[in-house]
Amino acid sequence: MIAVRHRGLITLSIMAATIMQVLDTTIANVALPSMTGDLGASQDTINWVLTSYIVASAIVTPMTGWLADRLGKRELFLISIVGFVATSMACGMAWSLPSMVAFRLLQGVFGAAIVPLSQTFLLDINPREKAGQAMAMWGAGIMVGPIIGPTLGGWLTESYNWRWVFLINLPVGALALLGCLAYLPKLPRKRRSFDMIGFALLSLAIGSLQLMLDRGGEVDWFAAMETWIYLLVSISGFWMFCVHILTREHPFLDPQMFRDRNFRIGLVFIFVVGIILLASLALLPPMLSRILGYPVITTGVVMAPRGVGTMISMLIVGRLVRVVDPRALVLAGLTLTALSLYEMTGFTPQMDSWPIIRSGVVQGLGLGLVFVPLSTIAFATLEPRFRADATSLFSLVRNIGSSIGISIVTAAMTRNVQINHAELGAFIHPYNPLLAQANPAAITADPAALQMLDGLVNLQAAMISYIDDFQLMMWVTLCAMPLALILRRPARR
Length: 493
Prior knowledge:
Elements: H1 7-23, H2 32-38, H3 48-60, H4 64-71, H5 73-92, H6 97-111, H7 114-125, H8 131-159, H9 164-167, H10 169-183, H11 196-215, H12 225-247, H13 261-290, H14 296-320, H15 326-344, H16 354-380, H17 387-425, H18 433-438, H19 440-443, H20 447-480
Helix pairs in contact: 1-7, 1-8, 1-10, 3-6, 3-11, 4-5, 4-17, 5-6, 5-7, 5-10, 7-8, 7-17, 8-14, 8-16, 11-12, 13-14, 13-16, 13-17, 13-20, 14-16, 15-16, 15-20, 17-20
């Protein structure tokens, strides 16, 4: 632990920067349609606004430990905040798609170190018995940020302009910078050689994986040679990187950190949490808009209680983690998450907003119960010298889990809609007595009646596909529960 004054002000400043960075992973999604016309982009190319940020952030995140040692943690954090705010302003003033993609790349580069460094600082400045409360506050920003991002982005886009989605970072970043300049402690630097080969191999693997996940849906996944190239390059890069770090004297990531069992299991858990958190967030807004006809603002209001549940859970679990076995809290959180997903499998096009709010609150409570003890126990037995590299890897695995989860549920959604449409459409024929009773005009091949039936079939096929995705995530959650029993409870002080 590092002895500091004004621990509360340091925490507020760090969390302001963290929330600012995390918000940008989802806040721009709803503004893409508005950007398309202003930037002269097409529906396909505008997605590079999201892809460029994700890929750049994923590649630079593993460098956080090395940069923190060479530049200093405080200095790197301040540079990251200044660079992120500056590139956010540049994104808000972008004049074309190439300029926007370039600024988003730089935004991802500068923002990559903010989340892992914020976690490192909170672990450094708090005693071990208060690590749970520190991780509760950090987790609240990490998990609530993506939830409120689409709501805030939709409101800014409709009320003002899509450019304010990026310009909103200026006041938040300025406050975070001033607080960190005034109170963040200066720590000694370390001389550490840079493993260029290891970094290049890991960057190649991560970049190819992210491109495959982001581009797969546009090119029909493995029906396109492009996807296979990304997959082969990613597998080859990861394999060569693993061989490299095991045989090099001073590798880019020290493999000794993986000897800690809690850290290894923690990486698996945070991967699962990433899948559940952002995959469900990727499914619900289009479902509420397409099936229930909710406008953007109403969708945000209905989904907001999910964030409230997460906040309540983290406020409670921050204190419980000191007296209750963290493994029990993780199991309880996974159970609540699975129950919420089970309830979501009962959604119907005729329901009101109450089932969405109720399941969202329960899921928020469950994810909060998982995230805080997991973030605490994963680093409880890890040597402090590995902390910067470990937190960057923790954030990277969470982001990869989110990307994979979104890609899986989106691909499953597209495939299942076609299958369900074909199966439901097979029942529409002149010899079906129920069809003749419900809509006699359809038997006579009336165009208006057939068009209405096709719309109903599309609606029901989409609803069944959403339910299939919720069920898939429920089984992923249940399969992760036995891993909690493998975690080792840290020794009490």
